[in-house]
Write a structure and sequence with these properties.
- The chain is built from 29 helices and 20 strands.
- It is of the alpha/beta class and 782 residues long.
- Among the domains are: 247 residues, 2-enoyl-CoA Hydratase, Chain A, domain 1 (Alpha-Beta Complex), CATH 3.90.226; 255 residues, 2-enoyl-CoA Hydratase, Chain A, domain 1 (Alpha-Beta Complex).
- Strands 12, 13, 14, 15, 16, 18, 19 and 20 form an eight-stranded mixed beta sheet that branches. A six-stranded parallel beta sheet has the order 10-6-5-4-1-11.
- The longest helix is centred in the last third of the chain and has 41 residues.
Length: 782
């Protein structure tokens, strides 16, 4: 029976009391947990929407925007691919530990290019400092010469475009620093319209130089003999271990490089100095006119120079301090360069209404033609970016196999029209270099996608070997390249070292072959085999260069023999094709990609129209309009008006007319003749700010997708046995990658201890400490 209340009445549904406020409070208390959770969720949602709105407003690019860029030593990097290779978790960790103002070279160049074309941007302010999150002990950018030259080109274009947009003298860019700690930083600063330095600062201008330390005498004292084979005279990467002083050929080569780099430094800084102020044409201690180059050369001879003297020469604009940005930009909006690049990139993608020709079928093209205003559309190219940075190795997290995998992933991506291989490497293992070079050849032959090389600070020895077959090679004037040669070094531990440390070694061989011995000097047939192996590698290297770069087998020796060149020298002797920055290489790759793809696409359309036309003529004959197909074709050609009348009676006329209109419209739109596909006209002008999309490999993926792929990974791909599956690199988990790194490191250390490879650490420490990097080559120890 239902329960009753005190009045004897059964319980019914509760009624709200007369005081609604008390009833509401009672209900809230009754369902307090639900109320708290709901209120919290509503508040969080409200705050998120407010944050999203404020973020959109604050990140909006408005007219009068001033870009700011905070640079510290190491804040500009080529790529973080090596770190991000561990997957999204690795990228999350890298984001947590890296400086917040770090920016990649490509992102900086693209942001400057977009800012130059954007009239909303008025000026650029750059400040170089140590930074709170870096342990750098110098006011330096940490950039190489070639990287600095790429940024200088972008900055010069920025100023030129700003003056065109806002009037002469208004395209300002400002560079602030308390004092220069190296002349490389001043090389970058000279591209700005205004350079401001503290009165107590100075310019350490002394000219380009290089220092090399030689260890032969020290190694001899330790009781170790270095057996060296180098091909040929200029290949001196192993000289510090086998010579007591600099070989004459190496000295000659190095002086040529230093003179070339110094001449470029003087020319570029003098040009910028002359454009900045007329004081640069006056000598320091008299009133005699002097050219800007003469003033700069005199400053290099007299440096380091103080800030007042530098201002008198016109090398800086003013002496002042900077403590707050508002005093400089006033009421204008300040926006960091990296943030601007992200927001402008979003605008760039949203504004593209064009079509990537590589992924279109005929139906989509027909629909595109029929759309209203389609004549205003233009093509868009997608360029894949792959990095080859650091020493080229067969193993490790950034091995040659992984680089080749990234190239193949880009080639297999149907949306990618061309590939740019960005290189900043001094070389390395010859087998690893050959793996990358073979991947470039394979992609260009099988996928018909051009691969363009863009050289950074260095692309020498094995790095040049890997890129010789690229369709076009871009370099900067200060890029170090060439070194077409081979060097091998083998340490031999002598009795002197064994006696010194009080040990003895006994070797037992079943076969009389001591080629792998670390205690026996190669002699006789063993030495001949060793030298023949090095000769074969050198011969293969020179043949590859001759074939890919258009040299005869005799002329290739003029640029080989291990000789190193600057970018300007390499351009004059044909080792590179053009002086240009990273962005220029991307634009060229996009142009070549569509030049290859569009004629093939139009040829396919021509084939379709031909088949449709044949079918249409046969239908006209079957319907009794003509006695034969030949008569119908003749009538269509000679009497188009009659043909149109007869075709109007055919139900299939609209499809055929659409096809004929389609092919004609596409040919007219692209400005290319399908009748002569062998020599297509240049119909596409690559512009990274307008009609080019970038896609980097390995691709950046969201954490959720990466976890899902890791859990559901499959190994049934057809290429899995060969290690070059389309998704194999994407399936590697962070745990597996970390385990591989640890195992590889332990294996190397154990092998080093067992083989007496005591020079490995010495070699690495030397390379890290060099102010001028040299090519690594194929230096291998047992």
């Amino acid at each position: 029976m239902p329960s009753k209340n005190s009045d004897g009445q059964p319980h019914g549904p509760s009624k709200p009391p007369q005081n609604l406020l008390l009833w509401s409070a009672h209900q809230l208390w009754r369902f307090k947990k639900t109320a708290i959770i709901g209120s919290g969720a509503a508040y969080c949602y409200y705050r998120f929407q407010r944050w999203k709105l404020n973020n959109e407003v604050n990140n909006r690019i408005i007219d009068g925007t001033v870009l700011t860029w905070s640079i510290t030593n190491g804040s500009i990097i080529e790529t973080d691919t090596a770190t991000s290779g561990y997957g999204p978790l690795g990228r999350v960790m890298d984001t947590l530990v890296k400086p917040s103002h770090r920016i990649r070279m490509l992102d900086a160049l693209v942001a400057l290019e977009m800012a130059a074309a954007d009239p909303r941007v008025k000026s650029l302010i750059v400040r170089v400092h140590n930074g709170e999150d870096t342990d750098a002990r110098s006011m330096s950018t940490g950039l190489g010469i070639a990287q600095t030259q790429e940024l200088r080109q972008a900055l010069e274009r920025f100023q030129q475009r700003k003056e065109e947009q806002h009037g002469a003298g208004k395209g300002k860019s400002y560079f602030y620093i308390d004092s220069f700690d190296d002349q490389q930083t001043y090389y970058l600063a000279s591209a700005f319209s205004d350079i401001v330095m503290q009165p107590t600062g100075y310019l350490p201008l002394t000219g380009i130089s290089a220092t090399q330390v030689y260890f032969k005498d020290l190694i001899d004292k330790l009781g170790i003999h270095m057996h060296v084979e180098a091909r040929k005279d200029y290949k001196s990467v192993v000289a510090p271990f086998s010579q007591s002083s600099m070989p004459e050929k190496h000295r000659e080569n190095m002086m040529d490089i230093l003179e070339s780099l110094n001449s470029t430094f003087i020319r570029d800084t003098a040009r910028s100095c002359k454009a900045k102020t007329a004081n640069c044409t006056q000598a320091a201690d008299d009133d005699q006119p002097a050219t800007a180059a003469e003033v700069m050369r005199r400053a290099l001879e007299e440096g380091p120079i103080s800030a007042p003297y530098a201002e008198k020469l016109g090398l800086i604009t003013a002496q002042d301090y900077i403590f707050d940005l508002e005093s400089i930009i006033g009421l204008r909006k300040a926006m960091s360069l990296s943030n601007y690049g992200k927001q402008r990139g979003k605008e760039h993608k949203a504004s593209i209404t064009s079509v990537n020709i590589g992924i279109l079928d005929n139906a989509v093209l027909l629909n595109m033609h029929e759309q209203e205003g389609s004549s205003k559309r233009s093509l868009v190219a997608t360029v894949g970016i792959v990095y080859l940075v650091g020493n080229i190795e067969r193993h490790g997290t950034n091995s040659a196999e992984r680089i080749a995998q990234h190239l193949l992933d880009a080639a297999r991506d149907i949306s990618v029209d061309a590939i740019v291989l960005r290189i900043d490497s001094g070389g390395g293992d010859v087998i690893a270099s050959d793996t990358i070079g073979a991947a470039v050849d394979y992609i260009q032959s099988k996928f018909n996608k051009p691969v363009v090389a863009s050289y950074g600070n260095m692309s020498a020895s094995g790095a040049y070997y890997a890129s010789t077959s690229c369709k076009r090679i871009f370099a900067s004037p200060g890029t170090i390249t060439g070194s077409i040669g081979v060097a091998a070094m083998r340490p031999i531990i002598t009795r002197k070292l064994l006696d010194y440390i009080g040990t003895n070694v006994e070797e037992l061989y079943v076969i009389n072959n001591k080629s792998n011995s670390s205690f026996t000097e190669p002699q006789g047939s063993e030495l001949e085999r060793y030298r023949k192996l090095v000769d074969n590698i050198y011969e293969d290297f020179t043949k590859r260069v001759a074939k890919d770069r258009g040299y005869s087998n005799e002329d290739v020796e003029e640029v080989a023999q291990g000789r190193v060149f600057t970018g300007i020298q390499a351009l004059s002797n044909g080792l590179v094709d053009e002086m240009g920055s990273f962005t220029r290489a991307i634009e060229s790759a996009a142009e070549m990609g569509l030049e290859v793809l569009v004629p093939a696409k139009i040829k396919t359309l021509d084939r379709r129209v031909h088949l449709e036309k044949s079918s249409f003529l046969r239908q006209l004959v079957a319907m009794g309009h003509f006695k034969s197909v030949d008569e119908a074709e003749k009538s269509l050609i000679n009497k188009p008006s009659d043909a149109e009348g007869k075709a109007a009676n055919s139900a299939d006329n609209s499809d055929d007319e659409s096809n004929k209109n389609l092919i004609g419209a596409i040919i007219d739109k692209l400005g290319i003749s399908s009748k002569d596909p062998e020599e297509p006209q240049k119909f596409f002008k690559g512009d990274i700010t307008r009609n080019i999309l970038l896609k980097e490999f390995p691709q950046q993926r969201e954490l959720a997708k990466w976890v899902f792929d890791s859990i559901n990974k499959k190994d049934d791909d057809p290429d899995g046995d060969f290690g070059f599956s389309p998704t194999k690199s994407a399936r590697m988990s962070a745990q597996d990658a970390a385990k591989n790194v640890v195992v590889a490191a332990l294996r190397d250390e154990i092998n080093a201890l067992l083989s007496g490879d005591s020079l490995r650490t010495l070699e690495k420490s030397m390379e890290q400490g060099r102010s001028v990097r040299a090519e690594s080559d194929n230096t291998r120890f047992k």
